[in-house]
Amino acid sequence: MRNILDFGQFEALNEESIASSASSAAASVGSSLLSKVNILKRKKPIDQSEYWTLITIIACENFPDNKQGMSDTAQSIYNRLAVPKQPYGKTIKEIVLAKGQYQPVSVGTKKGADWKNINTKEKSISVYMKTKGVDKTAATTAINNAIQAQKDSKLAKEAGKHVQSRTEFLASKPQSGGAVSPVERTSPKTNNAFFWNYAGKTNFYAKKDTTPKDKPDSVNLA
User: Fold this and answer.
1) Total-model pTM
2) Whose CA is closest to 163, among 90, 84, 58, 26?
3) What is the C-alpha to C-alpha distance for residues 172 and 77, in angstroms, rounded to an integer?
C-alpha cells in the first residue's frame, strides 16, 4: 500500500483547506465588523432634549423649592402625551413648545431664552435664568430640585393620586365653564390647580379614564 496521496487527492484536500480557512477568515471579519457596529450603536449619543425640556418647564411652572408641585406638573404632561391621537403633541418637547400652552415658554422666548434647544443641564439652567430673570445660583438650585422631583418615586405616586389623568393646569382655580373637576393642594397660592378639559376638544377625560399615565421612556433617565 502506498503511504502518499496521488496528486488529485492532494489537490482536493488543499482546496478544502483553503476554503475552510477562507470561511474562518470571513467569519472572523464578519464578527469583527458586527462588534464595531455594536460599539458604534452604544456610543451613539442619546437625544436628551425630551428630558431637559421637561425638567426646565416643571421648574419654571413652580416655586423653586416646590418639588411636589414639579412632580404634579410632570404628571400632567405625561397625561397629555398619552391622550389618544396625541392632540397636544407627539413628544414631550412638542407638548411643551406648543403655541399658547405654557407661559414660561412664550415669556422666556421673548427674553432670549432658547427653549427650542434644551438638551443639557447647562442649557436648562441658562433657559431658566433668562426666563425667570435670576442668577445662575438660583437657577441651578431650581433645576436640581426639578431633577430630584422628577425621579422621586414617592412624589410621583402622590402626583398620580392628586392629578390622576388631568391634563390642564393654571396657577389658580380655573373660572372657565369647560374646566372639569379642578383640584388644588392645601396651599393654593403656592400650587397649581389641575383639571380635565377636552381630549381633542370633544371628550371629557373625567368620563373616560382617570388613571395617571406612566412616565414615558424618553424622560425615564433617572
Assistant:
1) 0.79
2) 58
3) 18
